[in-house]
Write a structure and sequence with these properties.
Pfam families: Urate_ox_N (PF06181). It comes from Paroceanicella profunda. The chain has 394 residues and is mostly helical. It folds into 2 domains: 274 residues, no CATH class; 78 residues, no CATH class. It contains 14 helices and 2 strands. The two termini are 37 Å apart.
Length: 394
């Protein structure tokens, strides 16, 4: 009963997270596109950056952006903040339900680091806080005047963090935590920088003071960071279904690929919104395609997994020892009342029917058994892999 209750809670929290994320990503992409579509018209006042005309849902909209703020506080002002806050809160709730509640199976891998559950959870939550302070310090450093260099340093730091997470957490959790660290940076930008800066401008307007432009400029820089980091985060959040990515022995290299691909694709859209043409628009998609192909090639390579002939009895012994306790018509594992996903390995035809999933989850990655609870060794994974690649013969 507890397993069913946990699954329903997980489903509802995931649903809420997706709904919130759609709202945040949608508004973020819209306003970046709006900014880039602004044009300075002839005769426009000096306090205006530009304006743009848009049509949607049968109506016309005329948007104008001020360089700093209008002369007087408008009667009604819409704030865009809860999309970000609710996305982070539901995301953390989902991580708690999935990785903290099920820490022994999903957060901890005993073959990587046999951590006590409280220690693993503390490391997880602490890494989110540490990630924000390191990023915020970088944004306030002298590199803030050289955005490209700062972003390069941030890239190296995130790839290093991906490697570090892989030294303490399960492969699935390590990959997910990079996404969570980036998402915390992004939401922290909204909560601790963008909105407070906007409030300073609003308070100046209310008091009859002329707001300083620097607050808007700082907020704009953080918003741009969020824009370029969004696509990598989205992929990392949904990657738990694809062990060929997070389960690779060098998954931190794949993180490096994804960060670049996501930023390059986002850059093309940003340039498109600006109405740019020519060479500046021609390199992004070819580069992203080459990187994607390179990532797929790299993910297919596994060190030290040479083909070998395996006795069927030896492979079946591995399945019986490490897989069948959960994946059976009547599981013997205390955490399951029925086979997860309806996948059972009681018979050879059932094993053959799910051979590709077994190969991906238990051979090409260490995803299964969960948390390596049964202590499956590299040699046993190699044995199982050779047998499955041969067609699982009798």
């Amino acid at each position: 009963m507890e397993a069913v209750f946990h699954d329903w809670i997980s489903l509802f929290v995931r649903w809420a997270h997706i709904i919130a994320a759609i709202g945040w990503i949608g508004s973020s992409f819209y306003f970046m596109g709006l900014d880039y579509s602004l044009r300075k018209r002839k005769g426009m006042e000096d306090d205006k950056v530009g304006d743009t005309w848009q049509v949607h849902g049968g109506g016309f909209y005329h948007m104008v952006k001020y360089k700093v703020a209008p002369e007087h506080m408008p009667e009604e002002l819409t704030w865009f903040k809860w999309e970000s806050y609710s996305t982070w809160m539901t995301g953390f709730a989902m991580m708690a339900v999935t990785y903290y509640w099920g820490a022994k199976g999903l957060l901890i891998d005993r073959s990587v680091a046999d951590l006590p559950v409280p220690v693993a959870i503390l490391l997880s939550a602490g890494s989110l806080v540490a990630g924000w302070f390191l990023y915020d310090g970088l944004c306030k450093s002298a590199l803030r005047h050289r955005p490209a260099v700062m972003f390069a340093v941030l890239y190296v730091a995130l790839v290093f963090a991906a490697w570090a997470f892989g030294q303490v957490f399960s492969a699935r959790a390590a990959w997910l935590h990079i996404g969570a660290v980036i998402a915390t940076m992004m939401s922290g930008n909204v909560f601790l920088v963008i909105i407070p800066n906007q409030r300073i401008v609003v308070e100046d307007l209310k008091a009859g003071r002329a707001p300083e432009a620097k607050y808007g400029q700082i907020a704009k820089l953080r918003s741009t960071h969020n824009n370029y980091l969004t696509l990598p985060v989205v992929l990392m959040m949904v990657s738990n279904h694809y062990p060929m990515a997070f389960g690779h022995p060098y998954s931190w290299v794949l993180i490096g690929f994804i960060l670049v691909i996501g930023a390059v694709v986002r850059h093309w859209f940003n340039m498109h919104e600006q109405g740019r043409h020519g060479a500046i628009m021609k390199w992004q998609w070819p580069l992203a395609t080459v990187l994607a192909i390179g990532m797929m090639w790299f993910s297919s390579w596994r060190p030290g997994q040479a083909a070998a002939e395996v006795a069927p009895q030896a492979a079946m012994a591995v399945v019986s020892k490490h897989c069948a306790m959960c994946h059976a018509a009547t599981p013997t594992h205390e955490g399951f009342e029925e086979a997860p996903g309806g996948v059972a390995f009681d018979t050879l035809p059932e094993i053959r029917a799910h051979a590709s999933k077994m190969l991906a989850q238990a051979v090409l990655s260490n995803t299964m058994p969960l948390g390596n609870e049964t202590g499956m060794t590299p040699d046993e994974r190699a044995t199982l892999g050779a047998w499955l690649r041969a067609g699982a013969p009798e």
